[in-house]
């Protein structure tokens, strides 16, 4: 069985690579409180279709490079973007 995670794209600066932030809940037994921690994974994006803010599902695969062992399986929810009508800039 392959490991699947759902997270948000936080960086798409490298070609065919995105950085995905995956949240995880852990229990701190000392204070009996649940905490939210994050881990960043580099994922292979073959078609370079992901943008910052997309919610994606990543799937474990064979190592693509030294740091990449996950690939984008699907875009669960695209990022909310809007275009400024005066300047034409795209805002996330």
How are the secondary structure elements laid out?
Blueprint: E1 4-11, E2 17-28, E3 33-44, E4 55-60, E5 70-77, E6 82-83, E7 90-91
InterPro entries: NA-bd_OB-fold, Ribosomal_uS17
Protein name: 30S ribosomal protein S17
Pfam families: Ribosomal_S17 (PF00366)
Describe this structure in words.
It holds the Pfam family Ribosomal_S17. One of its GO terms (cellular component) is ribonucleoprotein complex. This protein is mainly beta. The chain has a single domain (4-79), classed as Nucleic acid-binding proteins (OB fold (Dihydrolipoamide Acetyltransferase, E2P)), CATH 2.40.50.140. Helices cover 0% and strands 54% of the residues. The chain contains no helices and 7 strands. It has strands at residues 4-11, 17-28, 33-44, 55-60, 70-77, 82-83, 90-91. Strands 1-2-3-5-4 form a 5-stranded mixed barrel. A two-stranded antiparallel sheet has the order 6-7. The chain is flat. The N and C termini lie far apart (35 Å). The mean pLDDT is 93.
Give the ordered list of helices and strands: EEEEEEE
Number of domains: 1
Helix proportion: under 10%
What is the CATH C-level name?
Mainly Beta
Mean pLDDT: 93
Can you tell me the CATH superfamily?
A: Nucleic acid-binding proteins
Strand content: over 45%
CATH architecture: Beta Barrel
* Shape descriptor: flat
CATH domain topology = OB fold (Dihydrolipoamide Acetyltransferase, E2P)
Largest sheet: 5 strands, mixed, barrel
The largest sheet has its strands arranged as 1-2-3-5-4
Distance between the termini: 35 Å
Specify the number of helices.
0
List the uncertain runs.
none
Pfam families: Ribosomal_S17 (PF00366)
Protein name: 30S ribosomal protein S17
Keywords: Ribonucleoprotein, Ribosomal protein
GO molecular function: structural constituent of ribosome
């Amino acid at each position: 069985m392959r490991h699947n995670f759902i997270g948000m794209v936080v960086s798409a600066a490298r070609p065919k690579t995105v950085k995905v932030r995956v949240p995880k809940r852990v229990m701190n037994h000392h204070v009996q409180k649940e905490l939210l921690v994050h881990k960043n994974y580099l994922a292979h994006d073959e078609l370079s279709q992901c943008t910052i803010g997309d919610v994606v599902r990543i799937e474990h695969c064979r190592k693509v490079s030294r740091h990449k062992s996950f690939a984008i399986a699907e875009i669960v929810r695209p990022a909310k973007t809007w275009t400024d009508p005066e300047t034409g800039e795209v805002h996330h």
